[in-house]
Each structure stands twice: as C-alpha cells, then as structure tokens.
TrEMBL record:
GO MF entries: phosphotransferase activity, for other substituted phosphate groups
Protein name: Undecaprenyl-phosphate galactose phosphotransferase WbaP
GO biological process: polysaccharide biosynthetic process
GO terms for cellular component: plasma membrane
Entry keyword set: Cell membrane, Membrane, Transferase, Transmembrane, Transmembrane helix
Stated family: Belongs to the bacterial sugar transferase family.
Domain Bacterial sugar transferase: 283-474
Subcellular location(s) per record: Cell membrane; Membrane
Topological category with respect to the lipid bilayer: Multi-pass membrane protein
NCBIfam families named among the record's database cross-references: EPS_sugtrans, WbaP_sugtrans
Lineage: Bacteria, Bacillati, Cyanobacteriota, Cyanophyceae, Nodosilineales
Amino acid sequence: MTPDQALKPAIAPVKVATRPRQTLLVLIGIDALCLSLAGIVGVWLRLAFDGQFHPSLYWRLWPLTGIFILGYAISKLYPGIAMSPVEELRRLILTTSLLYLLLGSSIFLFREVEIYSRGAFLLTWMFSLLFGVIGRFGLRVICAQQPWWGYPVVVLGAGKTGEMLIRNLRLQPSLGLKPVAVLDDDIRKHGTLLDVPVVGRLSMAPILAREMKIPYAIVAMPGVSRDRLLWLLERYGRSFPHLMLIPDLFGMSSLWVVAKDLGGVLGLETRQQLFLPGPRLLKGLLDKGLVIVIGILCLPIIGLIGLLIRLNSPGPVFYSQTRIGRSGRPFKAWKFRSMVADADRVLAQYLQDHPEYRASWEKDQKLRHDPRITPLGYFLRRTSLDELPQLWNVLRGEMSLVGPRPIIFDEVWRYGDKFSLYTQVLPGITGLWQVSGRNDVTYDERVNFDAYYVRNWSVWLDIYILIRTVRVVIVGDGAY
C-alpha cells in the first residue's frame, strides 16, 4: 500500500460540493445578460425620443459583448474569488468605462460617428454600469448560499486564527471560499473546527489538493517562526495554485495593501488616505456635489415630512443633539423629530417599569420597542428619512455623506483607543455599520466597523456604502 493510499481513509470526511466551472459560467452569463440588456434599454430609450432613429444599426454591435467579457477576464473579475466587494466594484466600473471609451474612440476614428447616436451610446454606457453592479451583487447574494457556489479551500492551522478565518468566510459567503478541511500538526485539535473536519497533519495537504482537486489553501498560523513559514510556503505552494497567508498584523489597513518587492525583501505598503489632504479634498467635493443634487430632489419630501410631523404629534419638526465631530469638536446634528416631546421622562419611566430591558439599553443604547418613538417616527427611522436634515450638516462641513456614526460625549469610553481614529474624520449620515446590520450589530462591532472604515477608506468604499445604503433603506434591514 502506497502512502497516498494509506491516507485516503483519513480524508473521507472531506466533502466538496462546490462546482468552480459552474460558478465561472454563471458569472460570465450574468455579465453578458446585463450588457445585452443595457444595449436594448439604451437603444429603446433613444428610439422613444426620435422616431427617425434606426435601431437595426446597433444589433451588429452585439458580438462586442465578447470583448467586454475578455476585458473582465483580464481585470481578474473571473472568477473573482476572495475579492472584496469594494475591489470588485472598482474593477467593474473602471473596466466597463475604459472599454466604452475605447469603443467610442474606434467609432470616431473609423468615421462612423455620424451613423451611431451619441445619446444611445451614453445611455448604454450608463445602463451597463447600473445593470452590471446590480447583476453581479445580486447574483452573489442569491448564489452565495448555494452549495455549488465558489471554490473549496483548505485551512492550514486549527488555532484561533483558523477558527476566526472559517467564521469570517461563512459570514461573507459571497467571497466564494468555502472551507472543506483543516490540517494541523497538533493531534489534540483533530476532529472538527466549527463543523469543518480537522483530518490530519499538515503533511496531508498535497494529497488533499490532488485527490479532492482543491485549488486554494490558507496558512492560518500567524505565530509560526519565519523559517517554518518559508518552508510551508515553498512546500505547499507546489500543491495549491492559490496559497494565501494570514499575517500577524491584525488591526492594520487590509483593503488596499499592496505587496512591494524591495530588492528581494517583501514590503507591504498601506496608506490611510483619509489622513491625506488630496483625498480629503476629493471626498469634500463629492459630498457637496451629491448633497446639492439630493437636497434639490428631496425638497418636496422634506416639506411633506415636516407637515406630517406637525399633524402627528405636538412639538417641533426638527430635533438637534450635540455630537462629536472631527478633531473632537462638538456640533449640532439635525434630524426630523421621531420621538414624543418628553422623551427622556418616557424612557426613564419605561425602564423603571420594565427593568429587564435596562441591561439592553445600557449595553447598546437601543431598544427594539422604544416607547419614545411616535408611529410616524417608526416609519421615518425604518426608512432613514429622519436623517434627511443632516444634509444641512454636510453642507456646513460638519458631517460627510459617509463616515462613522456621530456619537455623543457619553459614548466616548466605548471607543477606547479607537476614539483617536474617530476624531480624525468627519462623521457620516450613513456608514459601514449601517449597511452591515444597523441596530442588529453590537456596539463593539459598530466601533470595529468605524475603525475599519477609517483605515481602509477610498472613494470606492464610499460608493459601495452608498449603493448598499439604497438597498438597506428600501428593505429596512436591521432598522427599529
């Protein structure tokens, strides 16, 4: 019996249900569908404005969809495994826009600019971005829970880091990595780790990769010595086409880290862009531009909400509270009033009558059934319409559209050493924690979301959060 045959019974508990080829084909299919649909809608809208318009000219351009698919492949959007949604959004928008610019330039160079409509071209470009983002992210939400979605991965290390990795990959199934086995040299850890079988020592990695056709492995042993780590990477890098490493660098920026070859020495470059003048200026310009557009569009809604508040309950239309801004400066954050006029008295009486809810209030400053909130207030909070007046705070430079949630002075202690990160930036109307569960997350998780946002900020992260905010407002996830 060969060594491989002797080890085969040990890997029997490993079950691989994923179908990488199917995952790839579904991604290509949704991209082709979204691009085709964008062309149909763009040409149809142009036809609606001009009866003399000839849409038949555009059907011969449909094979160019293949060029876009090739461009996405070059940008590594296929299969897009282990790619953060923010990075996927960035690559999708930039690649699509670049290809449309090249297509437009080709039409101009070949003197066909008089044949094709600029309006149809721009509309198709716009809808390609819109449908592409909706299609890809919608597909990941729907398919991520399916057993065939993604790629199998082996975790090397059954310690706390391996456990944290498995938990995080399960919380974000859209990343497409599904742990199917864990290996560790400590036989006391053999058995299961979060229901994933720990099937043996690290030496079993090559047979797992070969027999189960597993292309991904992650080394989750941050405390291992340098020589041991290099040996692991060199040995198992031959078995797994994709071998990743979890470094012993928790708490640093993770979204935009770039590996650098410094004369044969590995360097990791990271920049906290929100601390730099240029990115801050860009963020400020985007804030002002979007707020002016949103404010003009929402003026009728703002007027209607103000009228309904006056009719619904006695008291002022607006409510302000002192919050902590950038550099620790206090400012008044404005909202539509969603509570009764004597809210503090009502809360005190409620907690006195229901002491079982006091611990929940003191822990997260939230109550699932808050007696202070008016019937209209519940609707405003669920849809986040109560925060529309904070557009004024953004115009005044006191807040941003996206950022950490503005806190009061009584909450400073909850941030601990992360409070210095909070004070480096403008607080936001929406933020990462609001689109990651809102009131369903704990206060400690909220602090970690805010710290992650500051450390990993980019324009693309803001765009991603704004897109997610639209969905959260419509669906009402985590709102109460």
